[in-house]
Specification:
With about 230 residues, the chain is α/β, with parallel strands linked by helices. It contains ten helices and five strands. Helix 6 links the parallel strand 4 and strand 5.
Amino acid sequence: MKWILSSVQLMKRSKNIRTNIFTEIESNGLNKGKMSVLAGLTKLRQLCNSAELVTGEDLFTYDSVKTKVLINELKCIIPQHRALVFSQFTSMLDLLERDLNAAGITTLRIDGQTQAQKRQELVNEFQSEDSKAEVFLISLKAGNTGLTLTKADYVFLFDPWWNAAVESQAIDRTHRIGQQQHVFAYRMICRDSIEEKIIKLAGGKKKLAEDLITTEESLMKSLSIEDIQYLFE
């Protein structure tokens, strides 16, 4: 059975998260409340990916619009092309691995738990001319450096975040000596969602780009109460 997460339910969940965050800020101050902000942002971002990521909630669905769009796009380019798919959530990689394989799309995967020797073996397999692997699933932090994946000419950032530099490093895995094709990179963003607000806010904060924020904790320090109100309004 499939339970569909309605826009009304999403609005209710967003409102509950906002209420909890501002109650925390009012009680303990802005700095201490920012950990609640991070938790709220993470939960809303996970809902954009798939509600399966948010456990212990009555708002649950087995459907993921993003995953459906990704599978449709991949089926349009395979087998003529190979693709990299990046996510910040290893739990999302679990779901993508399951759903892509169920759709008949052959995948490989690297995340933070993959040992160095195994990483190189997987890279060599993907780079092989006769490899059956069509999609490489990679966690954003584990795959932003040290990989050469020129057999891929499509890159999908499944859940974009603040740091454009890290995303650029991920895309650059395909821009290496030996790349003979044009590379197409896509950010998958839910319209009118927390993802869109995050990107707009980051784009207006030059200091974020100048400092090359690489951790969510340092990001939290840069947010003002007005920023937080904007993100959760």
